[in-house]
Each structure stands twice: as C-alpha cells, then as structure tokens.
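Lab manual, section 2.4: Encoding a predicted structure.

Procedure: take the sequence of the chain (150 residues), apply the prediction step described in section 2.3, and record the output as structure tokens. A sample record is shown.
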Amino acid sequence: MGRSQETFGKKGVRARNEKKRKEKEQKRALKKNEAKKTFDEMIAYVDEFGRISSAPPDPDQKTEIAAENIEIKTARNKPENDPGFVHKGIVTFFNQSKGFGFIRDLETNQRIFFHNNGLLEVVAEDNLVSFELVRGIKGPSAIRVKRHIE
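Recorded output:
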C-alpha cells in the first residue's frame, strides 16, 4: 500500500503548527533563564503624598499620633436634605403640552425637574413656587409644587 498523498494545504498547516510550538518552547526557555525577582525587589511603598515609590519611608520622618487626639464626629444633617423641607424657586421653563418643567432653586441656583404629577396648583413660567425635593431617576426632582404667596 502506498502512502496517502499529502496536499500542499496539509503541509502548510503542519509547518505552521510546528513553528508555533517552537516559538512557545523558546519563550518558556527565556522565562526560565530570566533572573527571578525577590520579594524585596517586587514590593512598592506609598509616601505621605500617596505616590508609589521603590524606597521605603524614612523611619526618622514618622510622627506619632496619640489615639486620644483623633476626633470622630458625625456630620449633622442639613434641614435642606430632609424630605419634608420646603424649598423656594422660580419656574424657568414649563411645557404644559408635554407636562414637565424646570425650577431654579433660589438658595442653590440648582436646576430641578418637575412633572405635572407633582403639581398641586397650576403654575406658569416666572412664577415663584415652593416645592419639596426627592431623588429622581436622573437627579433631584420637585414634588408638591405650588405657587408661593408672600
């Protein structure tokens, strides 16, 4: 029986695979021969400014802090962050056909979205209004919007 004929395509595939295998062996041999780094060479330090450096910090520059001198406080909540706090603002834009608008808060100059569903009274542009803030999908939203009368 004769040997099966080997086509040019098969020879090319075999040659390519052989080449890849030899390249892998060479890479493995290079990695093996490279000098292994020690743990001390791999370690990195962070200085007082948050920068990474290869040199350890100078022990003479360290300052001791007594645990009694550390103050831990909780931030007091501002009344503006309470859900029931009433804000004042001016209606800068209102599209009645689409049912939404924007209010500019008088204290923070923040632009706040409102929807028809959040209206208690009919409002128009340039009206002074009072409202409550809630967290909306895309940021703060106003609810319980009504004209403010002074």
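Check your result against the sample. DSSP finds two helices and seven strands in the chain.
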